[in-house]
Structure formats: C-alpha cells, structure tokens
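Q: I have two molecules that I believe assemble together. Could you output structure tokens for the complex as a whole instead of separate predictions?
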Amino acid sequence: GAVVSQHPSWVICKSGTSVKIECRSLDFQATTMFWYRQFPKQSLMLMATSNEGSKATYEQGVEKDKFLINHASLTLSTLTVTSAHPEDSSFYICSARDFGELFSPLHFGNGTRLTVT
Amino acid sequence: KNQVEQSPQSLIILEGKNCTLQCNYTVSPFSNLRWYKQDTGRGPVSLTIMTFSENTKSNGRYTATLDADTKQSSLHITASQLSDSASYICVVSAGGGSYIPTFGRGTSLIVHP
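A: Yes, here they are, computed for all two components at once.
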C-alpha cells in the first residue's frame, strides 16, 4: 500500500535554530500534502496544505514565516520550523493523498517529535 | 462551517468488552467519512471508509455505520483487545472535487486487562 515516509522521527534542537522535517510519498505522486501539529492527548491540528509548485495554504493562526513549507516535487514536501522556541516543541505529522485513487485515504507519516531546549 | 464532533472524548473499558464511538458532522457536500486509528506517537492509519450510499462496513472487529440523513457515524469495536488502546479519529471529506478533510478531535480509548 501507499506509504508516506517522514524524517526525522525525532529531533532536539536549541532555541533559535531552525529544523527541517521531510515528508515523502514513496510509491505515489502527491500534488497535495498536509502538515499537522499535535500536542499530547490532543487531536491533530491542521497547520497548512502544501501544494506542489505553488505556495502553501496556511490555517488561521499559523505563522507562515515561522513554518516554511516547500513542495518542490510531486513526492516531497518539507516543513522548516525557523528560529525555534520551546513552545514549538510538539509532534508534527504530515499526510498525503493519492489523487490517482478514488476516495484515497490520507496516508500519514509516523510523525516527528520536536523538542526545543 | 464544516465541523466534525466526536464523542465520548475518552473511554475506558475492560478487555473483551464492546464499545461504540460516535461521530456527527456538518460537512457539505459530503464525499466520504473515514475512521482512523492513531497509536501513541505514530501517524493515524485508516480503518474504514464510508461513502454516501454505504450504511455499514466491517473490518475485522471494527464495524462502522453511516446515516447520511442524520449525518452521524459510529465505530463499534467488538471483543476489545489491549492493542485497541489508541485514539480514534473521524475524518469527513467534502465533495465537489476538493476532498478537503475535516478532522474530529478523536476519542481516546483505553482498554484495561
């Protein structure tokens, strides 16, 4: 089945540095990918929709200059957390849908645990 | 505004018991509804999909129902196992070509031995 690979699975960084998270669709092309943030014991919160070849669409309240999204190819989207602060510590998950498959489910990556010290 | 409401927020049951999770939605136009299972620290995995014309669908011990008239869905888990402990998320996708998903907040299920 369709697989979405997310890397790294966990990262620890110092406050003020930037962190890049990659999301790859391994066996299908994804014109659209989604990025989520999840705090402990809470549901997924959609941060932005990543569109291949165009600008990402950010949800209300998400700073686009802080969470940079690049979707340069049909199989890769990246999320860069710039100038990270401890409050950015969270679980970040990406998902992608195979638009070549009718009613395709969202295929999720296994998430990235970000800890900012 | 498209919304998906899930209940209960959390549930604790004993191993071997059955349970039912609820999902109400206001997404329009409706395309499909999926139930996902999310284990702690992992990405969600699809359990079932329900389209407009489907009322019931089973996947092993999981049975999902859909009432498109009342815009309600349920996920029934039979003979629960410890491995069923997870968060169950209802996701409803809009139609009209966009298929933009709307997420419920999830139900946290804990199965005790």
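A: One point stands out. Residues 16 and 80 of chain B are 5 Å apart (CA to CA).
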